[in-house]
Specification:
This protein is mainly alpha-helical. The protein is built from two helices and two strands; from the N terminus they run αββα. It has one domain.
């Protein structure tokens, strides 16, 4: 295994963090979006960047000792 590969448990942890984060901070797409047929999709507010989400994930994992 190289240093870049994640273990399955790590991937599960990342996915669960993103799901939880989206449940708390996500916004349901308003109205009808052309050629988009899923109504359960949420987007993050523009105040959240990929790097800010990464910092929150890193902080949460450090706090939990993982």
């Amino acid at each position: 295994m190289t240093k870049r590969l994640l273990a399955y448990e790590d991937i599960e942890r990342v996915v669960q963090f993103l799901v939880n984060f989206t449940e708390v901070n996500g916004i349901i797409l308003p109205g009808h979006v052309a050629a988009f047929h899923r109504w359960d999709v949420k987007v993050l507010p523009s105040s959240e960047t990929r790097s800010s989400v990464w910092r929150k994930y890193k902080s949460a994992m450090t706090t939990s000792g993982l």
